[in-house]
Amino acid sequence: MIYLDNAATTKPAQDVLDTFVKVNQDLYFNPNSPHQAGLQAEQLLQQAKVQIDRILGLENRYDIIFTSGATESNNMALKGAAYNRKPFADEIIVSVIEHPSVLEVMRHLEEEGFKLKYVNVTTEGKIDLEHLKSLMSSNVGLVTCMQVNNITGQEQPIAEIAQLLKDYPKAHFHVDAVQAIGKVPLTFNRVDSMSFSGHKFNGLKGQGLLLARNIHNLEPVIHGGGQEYGLRSGTVNLPIDIAIVKALKQAVQQRDALNSRLRQYNNDLRAFLQTFRGVKINSPVNSAPHILNVGFDGVKGEVLVNAFSKQNVMLSTTSACSSKRGHLNEVLLSMGVPESQIEGSIRISMGALTSEADIEGFKAAFEKVYEEMKELLKS
Ligand code: PLP
């Protein structure tokens, strides 16, 4: 099988799985228990946080909260910050290119009375900084932006947004870094919170992180026994939390080498695909290298995904989350991609385990699929 759907999820690394099993076997204790074994578990939990701080170079600027994934981290940060600021700053700025785990939180907050403002996106799929500037005021309590878009791979100007927010101290700045970690450098300056999902970087599903600069600025959305600074009540899942550190360390250590390897594959694929009539690359040239969105004018994305699947190549239409919903992709729409090209778009996404042989295998499969479809394609 040629697996090119790494933006949806990745294969867990063997040592991450081994760590998960070993901690389950040897240290299954509750870190909140007062006995010796519980204390040992608590120590390990705290050591894991110190390690994460070092791996990411956080220099103690953030509290680290273990979560079940980025959906939970995004909910926790966005609702937590919005509720905290509601009495004095109830406006929120977001764009339509965010992941549903952000956009649906926003829609929920709007129903609760928050005022949402949508910032424009350029034809390159980037946040329009001038428009953002014009939307800012002292009533804005929350601004959220992903670092790398999960549909196109486009990188957002996080440092520039952070710089702009310097003049608005009431505004909490949240960054969804799910598709950025392990692929491109992260920006922490003036970022108040950041989300990650372990399974996107060869960790396990159900494993995530939230970094928060000031936990007192977040209202808890999960109530109970008060674990994780009172932000995430519930018995701590030590095996899953220790295992994510392993995955994170590898992802960060291998980042630059992986980035340049995937850049080569990306360039290679672009050069190859450009030679086919009716095939258009939707991902801007300077996007993160692991995601390549390609449009076929005249054939539906689902038909293409099935045709590739028959050739043993696994890829997706837009994103796994929205590909079953059957509506036009907002990210591509906001970039001005023609509707017929959006309907026929597929996402090729690579990861740490993608090899040159996979790329060559994809090309061979592509030629077969293209042969079947070419009569239907508009030029
Ligand atoms: N944010 C982005 C940019 C994503 O790509 C995803 C998953 O596809 C998420 C958030 C949600 O992650 P999870 O499904 O692991 O909670």
From TrEMBL:
The keyword Glycosyltransferase does not apply. Residues 2-361 form the Aminotransferase class V domain. InterPro entries: Aminotrans_V_dom, Cysteine_dSase, PyrdxlP-dep_Trfase, PyrdxlP-dep_Trfase_major, PyrdxlP-dep_Trfase_small. It comes from the Bacteria. Its cofactor is pyridoxal 5'-phosphate. Keywords: Aminotransferase, Pyridoxal phosphate, Transferase. The keyword ATP-binding does not apply. GO terms for molecular function: transaminase activity. Signal peptide: none annotated. This is Aminotransferase. It comes from Staphylococcus piscifermentans.
